[in-house]
Amino acid sequence: MANITVFKHPLIQHKLSILRDINTGSKDFRELTREISTLMAYEVTRDLQLEEIEIETPLQRTKGYALSGKKLGLIPILRAGLGMVDGMLSILPAAKVGHIGLYRDPNTLSPVEYYCKLPHDIAERDIFVLDPMLATGGSASAAIQFLKNRGCKNIKLVNIIAAPEGVEVIKKDHPDVDIFIAGLDEKLNEKGYILPGLGDAGDRLFGTK
Ligand code: PRP
Ligand code: URA
Predict the structure, then answer these.
(1) Ligand nearest 166 Cα, by number?
(2) Full DSSP string of 139-171
(3) 202 CA to middle of ligand 2, Å?
(4) 102 beta partners
(5) Which of 10, 51, 163, 169 has its CB 3.0 to 4.6 Å from that of 68, i.e. a possible disulfide?
(6) Is 0.70 topped by the overall pTM?
(7) SS3 call for 192
(8) What is the tens place of the pLDDT at every residue in 141-190?
(9) How far is residue 78's CA from residue 205's CA, in Å, rounded to a whole number?
(10) Computed over its alpha carbons, how large is the radius of gyration of the chain?
(11) Which atom of ligand 1 is nearest to the CA of 101?
């Protein structure tokens, strides 16, 4: 069964509250999304494999460690997932980035695919799917299925805010996918927005409303 981890770190919680605030403009919203993503990257990579290596300090030889597991793939769901990429890449610079374009049909709330460009060796990588918002779960579930159809096996989902409804959908559709979030909110409203949430993440990131 999928594990869900809510990051309670004080820095993440502090920044998340400013992110939610209606008075936070796009410049700060982007900056906070980037910072929260960097902090989340630190947490979601806790179980990466290490191997022992020999290194030489200016004084003597000693043992050290190097990452030794599979290479990583970051998959932002367009558009809002883009806001999480730079923060993650700042501490995972060797990760490759693939893009999946999905938008929610405003009437049915179902995801509609409009773009996909993935690294050629995506099936060999450990994957982090990035999207600030997990609402009905439709977009994330579709993106994960898309990646599984291309051979990806080890997939983690990283969201900033999730609704319980979305978490249940991922648990049901993808019990093998662990979910990492900064805030687990109360519910969805009748238009599929997360309450209390932060509004429309894509619009707030890019200033489109
Ligand atoms: C938002 C968000 C997720 C999706 C979540 O994207 O970034 O991708 O909604 O909703 P769901 O869990 O109900 O599928 P949106 O469709 O608004 O597109 P955008 O990122 O281009 O603004
Ligand atoms: N997408 C968003 O950007 N915000 C929500 O609250 C739900 C879906």
Answers:
(1) 1
(2) HHHHHHHHHHHTT---EEEE-SEE-HHHHHHHH
(3) 8
(4) 113
(5) 51
(6) yes
(7) coil
(8) 999 999 999 999 999 999 999 999 999 999 999 999 999 999 999 999 99
(9) 12
(10) 18
(11) 21
